[in-house]
Each structure stands twice: as structure tokens, then as C-alpha cells.
Please model this.
Amino acid sequence: MEFKRAQLFDGVDPESGPYFDESRPRIADQAERERLLEFLAHGGTAIERAAGLALDQLDASKGKIVPISTVTDGTWIWTLAHAYYLEQYGYGPDSEFYEHIKSRGYRADEPGEEVKVAALEFLRRSRNGRP
Model:
């Protein structure tokens, strides 16, 4: 079973850390933003829950405020940080993931247990640099 992993940031600068590329669209339309937020924050099924929070990479003065649990819709895997950066800064998902969301009518599928287990295994392998 193959999955796609949504990348949150566009790159990492060795000095300043993760960043969004200037070409990454910001979602200004409020209705579109709300549709995306609903999908990103509530559409996926949790495959890895994290009790802690991460540091806001764009404004460290906010502290550890970014949710980091990982979810899937059975095709894509993303973290709840995607919803945070959209809500706080307007950064939408990368173009391929965004197209997937729109093609699904902003509604995530509910994956079964077998798919959730496979997604978690895929995530762990990808973190360890294995296909």
C-alpha cells in the first residue's frame, strides 16, 4: 500500500530553520480557508497521537503551540501542524496535496484499521529513510 506524505515546509535553512517558499500560496479567501481548515484539522484519522506541542517555527516567541499529531485519509499523511500554519499565517498545503483535497470535495475518507496500520508503518519507514 502506497501513501503520500504531505510536506509542511518547503525547505530548511541551516541557520534560520524551516521556511515556506515565497511561491507557496497564502489562502486569503475566508471560505476557502475554512474548508481547508476543516479538512486539515478534522478530516483525517489519527495514526500517531502526540501529547506535546512543537515550537512555532515562524515566531518562536509564541512558544510550543503547534499540534503535531499525524493523521491520514488513506491516501495522504499529514500533521495537524498543517492546520495551524494555515490558520495562523494563511499558508496552504503544497500544490499536489491541495489538489487532492479539492478533488475529494474537501472531505476525507475514513480509512479502515488495516489502512491505518499500513499508513503508520509507511510513516515509520519513511522517517528511517527506508522505502
About this structure: The beta strands are 4-5, 11-13, 17-19, 45-48, 53-55, 64-67, 70-72, 76-79.
